[in-house]
Amino acid sequence: MSKSRKNDPDCRAALQMIRATIEEHCPPGVLMSEDEVNGHYGPELFAEAEAISAAIVKTVEKLSK
Known about the structure:
- By secondary structure, this protein is an all-alpha fold.
- Helix content is about 70%, strand content about 0%.
- The protein is built from three helices and no strands.
- The chain has helices at about 10-25, 35-40, 45-65.
């Protein structure tokens, strides 16, 4: 990711929208809180994307059982 996109407000807003959708529609507990993401992965946008990706995988696994 280019340096100019690292803290792009539009990217952050898009990830927040995706986070809200997961929190509303996916099983509880599949997505770490933002504080947990910051502690586990770091505060970067890519870290939030990693956590969201992991939540999607966990959701699919739970729904496939």
